[in-house]
Amino acid sequence: MSAIKKDYKRITTKSLIEMKSNGEKISMLTAYDYTMAKIVDTAGIDVILVGDSASNVMAGHETTLPITLDQMIYHASSVVRAVERALVVVDLPFGSYQSDSKEALRSSIRIMKESGGHAVKLEGGKEIKESIKKILNAGIPVMGHLGLTPQSIYKFGTYTVRAKEEQEAEKLIEDAKLLEHLGCFALVLEKIPAHLAKQVAESISIPVIGIGAGGGVDGQVLVIHDMLGMNNEFSPRFLRRYMNLYEGMTTAISQYVEDVKSKDFPNEKEQY
Ligand code: KIV
């Protein structure tokens, strides 16, 4: 199956909306550092998400809750320095926007000013409406995030599929429509039934990007470490591994250790 693809020099929030109306699927991956972002951007990704999943994959925390605004800005600024084409979206971390809309705006302004990111993402619907309005009023593009919202993991209790029950599904649909109405440029739907995600994508005009939300949405996002197979503990059904870097890197590093110990490295050509 050949993909519909327009040649964009630089991806903007407008390009994403255009892609949705042209039926071109949107590709999105996370990145948290300069070298990885350069590879991801060169490979032609549309959106790079500096996700708060950095808390897990970069810092080794069990949840996304501990990462700070300063740490997110550090990761985002490293990514921005590498990127020439992709739209860079930066997660507002837990605790940087929940208490009130002024704090949400202050945190978003810090991200935009200090990292050079192009947009912010935050988790939630109706309950953060005022914050979204304030951020948008300041001219900062906002991406929403509904379904499994990892910053609320202690409220949910588990990482299982969300919105399987009618009441939660109805709230999710209402929230998605509200985010569109407020002016968000796109929406991430995480780990919800495929039929519900498709229904949402068909009922709003902004692009819906799914993770564990099936193929009926307008684009897909994965965490880069997961799709490259850099860990082998995390294996949800929605994850497609494109490489087994955990094995490849472990083999390469073991070989290096052996070569150093055996004095095989460096050889005569590898010295001055
Ligand atoms: O932080 C993150 O990586 C995310 C994606 C899972 C969408 O929010």
UniProtKB/TrEMBL annotation:
CDD domains assigned to the protein according to its UniProt record, in alphabetical order: KPHMT-like (cd06557)
Localization per record: Cytoplasm
Catalytic activity as recorded in UniProt: (6R)-5,10-methylene-5,6,7,8-tetrahydrofolate + 3-methyl-2-oxobutanoate + H2O = 2-dehydropantoate + (6S)-5,6,7,8-tetrahydrofolate
EC number: 2.1.2.11
Cofactor: Mg(2+)
Annotated binding of 3-methyl-2-oxobutanoate, by residue: 52-53, 91, 121
Pathway: Cofactor biosynthesis; (R)-pantothenate biosynthesis; (R)-pantoate from 3-methyl-2-oxobutanoate: step 1/2
HAMAP family to which the protein is assigned, alphabetical: PanB
Protein name: 3-methyl-2-oxobutanoate hydroxymethyltransferase
Organism encoding this protein: Flavobacterium taihuense
Name of the gene: panB
